[in-house]
Amino acid sequence: MPFKCHSCGTTLEAAPMSPSIRPRLTNQELRARAPALDAEIARARAYLDQVLAKREMVQNVLDAIVYPVLTLPVEITSQIFCWTLAKTGHIAFPHNLRLLGQPLHLGQICRLWRQIALSIPQLWNHMDFVIDLNLNQPQAPSASLIHTCLSRTASSPLSLFLDATTHRTDNRTSWYAEPILDIFAPYSKTWENVGFYTSLNSLRALSGIYKQLPRLKSLKLGLRDRKPATPITLFEEAPLLQTVHLIKLHSQTVTLPWSQLTVLHVEGLRAGELCGVLGLTTNLVSLIIGRALDDEANLWDLPPLPHLQSIVFTTTSLDAYQILPFLTVPRLRDLKVALSYQRDNIAQLFAHALDRLYIFIAYDRDGAWLQYLATTPPSLRTAKIVLSSRCAVILGPLLSHLTDDPTFLPGLESLAITVLRQYEEHAPVTARVLSDMLRTRRALGLQNFELVSSVSLPDTRLDTRIAGLVADGMHIRVETQAEPYNDFGRPEF
């Protein structure tokens, strides 16, 4: 408590009393307190023993649980892993080095799954390596970690892709891509599907793969810098190579076993360069053409492709269209094409053997495409028609042709129509119009019909006639979606 100094009169706070000068309990009081503390300790120990017993009981119950997934034979668990995992494990560098794809995620579940995942080569033989060199502080990927992943593949076939993403003009692409290519090269005898989109200098790390590609079946190749002064010959001898995807490369820049190729995907080629490639690939079965450039080449020099059965045009450019009418494909069965301009000679691609047609109509104000579709052969069984925002006005006439003209697409068994967001109004599609068309086409053999549009469509579930067709086994899907259009760049039909 505060007190005053006798000399100066200042008020001061008293210091706390030291334990040493506090009043002490007597011996008799201490002896009386000890039994009470002993009783309290006994009660605490009894409670602790009770809690420990409950904990042991819970643990025994947990230990007795048998998880069915852990009782499966290792062979079955391994097969499930192979079925459920994606074919490509995405490995991103430099700042996402820890994301080594799904095989490592399996190893984080339990010890047994980790042992199984590490012992299955098939889980490690599909990997994409993406190096982003546009970041401010790129870091070199861990070569030892990549080597560890590849070493787990044993001798199983490898599918690898390296994409060095950069907009730089310095040598960073080579600096960071070469260490990975150095690791890839010793495994070239097990390559099955590989792709490289990198710099010309970094490909020097693959010099040892020449004549060491006994399993290579598909190749994707593109350069991010200048074209080589001399052709790239690394892949010249690959006895099983049949599928090739070239990006801005042609027969004068890369040497391949052209005559044995059956699937070719080319992008960024001029018409003359494409002519040179097609002149060498005489056994093509499937051709995919991306963005093409026009260089006023003599397109009449395009050779006939007697074996070609599938064509995919993944571009709407006029330059690419200049090439299409000059192709001679007597055995064409599948055609997937996106065109913005109508020409009479497009009908020559509708060969008598045409079975499937996927057509993206980018522009049509006068219904010219309906005339082209009318020239398709009776062999056509599957069709998908995508109407862009500037030609959706022909949806009504298209449905009318299907209803009123039995000679229009007569042999269709499956028809899908997609209408993109439009700028112009057109007459709304009613349930009656759809039911009349579906009943007519059902009699002609139509089994599957889909209509997906960005504009409002009627609820066909309320129409008893359409419901009767569904009950009869016909698949009908009529749906309104904000963004109904899938990526046309995919080569799948």
Secondary-structure map with pairings?
Layout: E1 3-4, E2 11-12, H1 27-64, H2 74-84, E3 89-93, H3 102-106, H4 111-118, E4 126-132, H5 143-151, E5 158-165, H6 172-184, E6 191-198, E7 218-223, E8 243-247, E9 263-267, E10 269-270, H7 271-280, E11 286-289, E12 292-293, E13 310-313, H8 318-323, E14 334-339, E15 356-361, H9 368-373, E16 382-387, H10 395-404, E17 414-419, H11 431-444, E18 448-453, H12 464-471, E19 475-480
Parallel strand pairs: 3-4, 4-5, 5-6, 6-7, 7-8, 8-9, 9-11, 10-12, 11-13, 13-14, 14-15, 15-16, 16-17, 17-18, 18-19
Antiparallel strand pairs: 1-2
Helix pairs in contact: 5-6, 10-11
Protein name: F-box domain-containing protein
InterPro entries: LRR_dom_sf
Provide an overview of this structure.
The protein is of the alpha/beta class. The protein has a domain of 132 residues. The chain is 28% helix and 19% strand. It has 12 helices and 19 strands. The strands form 3 sheets. The chain has a 15-stranded parallel beta sheet with strand order 3-4-5-6-7-8-9-11-13-14-15-16-17-18-19. A two-stranded antiparallel ribbon has the order 1-2. Helix 5 packs parallel to helix 6. It is extended and about 120 Å long. The N and C termini lie far apart (94 Å). About 4% of the residues have low confidence.
